[in-house]
Amino acid sequence: MFEAAGPADLVDAMTSAARCESRAAAERLAAVASLYRVRKSMYVEAGLWRTDVFEAVAAEVSAAQNISRWRAGSQVRMAVSLYERLPQVAEVFYRGDIDQRMVQLTLSRTETVDDAIIAELDAALARRIVKWMRFSKDKLRDRLDQWVAKFDPAGVRVPPAAKDNRYFDVTPDVPGMAFAGGVLTARDAAALDQRLEAMADTVCANDPRTWNQRRADAAGALGRGEATLACQCGGDDCPAVALRESAAKVVIHILAEQATVEGRSDDPGYLSGFGVLPAEEVRAAARTAKLVPVSQPGTEPETGYKPSAKLRDYLRWRDLTCRFPGCDAPVEGCDVDHTTPWPFGVTHASGTKHYCRTHHLIKTFYGGPSGWRDAQSPDGTVVVIAPTGHVYSTEAHGAGLFPKLAEPTAPLPPPTSTQEPSDKSAMMPRRKRTREQDRRARIERERRQRIELDAEEERQRQAWLAETYEPPPF
Q1: Closest Cα to residue 397, out of 327, 308, 453?
Q2: Where in this protein does the record put region Disordered (predicted)?
Q3: Same structural domain for residues 134 and 31?
Q4: 342 near 411, Cβ under 8 Å?
Q5: pLDDT score, position 348
Q6: Number of Cα atoms under 13 Å in the Cβ half of residue 165
Q7: What average pLDDT score do residues 427-431 get?
């Protein structure tokens, strides 16, 4: 693309692309904010619905951009805040003079500014923010806080207490491995550290693993509720007797081809929640695991509303995640949805799939001829039609990984009727307060906390002045 370009041309192209990128992001967020305004005027009664206008718009954003519900929700939140509270900063963003990093931090640092003051602050920031593009994150934060304090001292953000930032994550890493770690209270971390040290020390001196490897394996044994770590020296006379009595039954689910389990293939398996699992890890787990075949469902629909255990197992492995466009919520937390609502639709693999609770409610309560609709093929493909008429198709994740699960099941006859109850909205789970009321309550709590902190700092300053002040001699 730039084979004949000189350094100056390359710098110009890079600068132009960066400005275009910012303008495109601003335009995208403007469209999201406008969609939110339109839907808010249409879904007037949805304010106290559990799946409210915010979730309804996030569903449309998720499907249109093929992104997760979490990322879509972040866009909706950012778009609404930017174009409702900081429209002049948004205009600077649209010109390409600032980037999304600056916009995100500006929104965060001005979130608790009073609504009666935010317009003045918006104008002041829009005149100056371009000059701050070269600032680091910390310098930009300080400059934003300085201007918030000029207009609304109670709106300066209060840093969270250290203990409120504790977390512990377990996330997939390279195939067959995962990352586990986080921030704990000092007491909990000390207890965990000592427990891992003690368990790592329960093997004999001939165990081939390093100390760090034994600590990592001890974390797995601890997760299974085992009392000691099994030694891997391989000796018949090993002095380390691993009692390994489980305090609780822990079950993990692995999907694999029969040929992989038997050693006739090296195709990988799948560990639920963690992704692809190498063949050797599959076979190692299979040596002590309970093996249960995934059975293809029969051609005849089941008679009840709830799928049988056999059908539920098949649907679980075929889908693996929520089937809504862009959503990757694990199937363990999803509902089984009848593509044609029960009792007009039947309980069968060709007419049921998984939706997470939010997208299940979206389809149920924002559906109908002018709302969300879907259709399903016998191979598990789901076609989703948005309220705008846009069409999105999703493939079952498990069927994509294991083609055997994509084999078509029985075709279903068209339903005779799909008339829905007229009072359907009465069945929607409800909130005690709207999302906006929750936001305002949270902001008011933080503003009160800032006022109290400032008052305490002033009290301490006055006390210090009183202690150090010496009257002049006469």
Answers
A1: 327
A2: 404-474
A3: yes
A4: no
A5: 92
A6: 5
A7: 84
- 438 falls within a domain: no
Element (H, E) at 137: helix 137-151
In a domain, 455, yes or no: no
Condensed to tens digits (0 to 9), the pLDDT of residues 211-222 reads 999 999 999 988
201, 222, 250 - which closes a domain: 250
User: So what's the pLDDT on residue 246?
Assistant: 46
Residue 346: name the closest of 301, 299, 378, 297 by CA.
301
Each residue's pLDDT tens digit, 284-331: 889 888 898 898 888 888 888 999 999 999 999 999 999 999 998 999
Whether the CB-CB separation of 82 and 94 falls below 8 Å is answered with no
Q: Is residue 424 part of a domain?
A: no
Residue 417: half-sphere exposure toward Cβ, Cα within 13 Å: 4
SS3 call for 170? strand
Report whether 184 contacts 166 (CB < 8 A): yes
SS (H, E, C) 260-326: HHHCCCCCCEEECCCEEECHHHHHHHHCCCCCCCCCCCCCCCECCCCCCHHHHHHHHHHHCECCCCC
> Cα(303)–Cα(333) distance, rounded to whole angstroms?
24
CA 449 to CA 260: how far, in whole Å? 59
Q: Which helix (H) or strand (E) holds 355?
A: strand 352-356
Query: What SS3 state is found at 80?
Result: helix
Number of domains the chain contains:
4
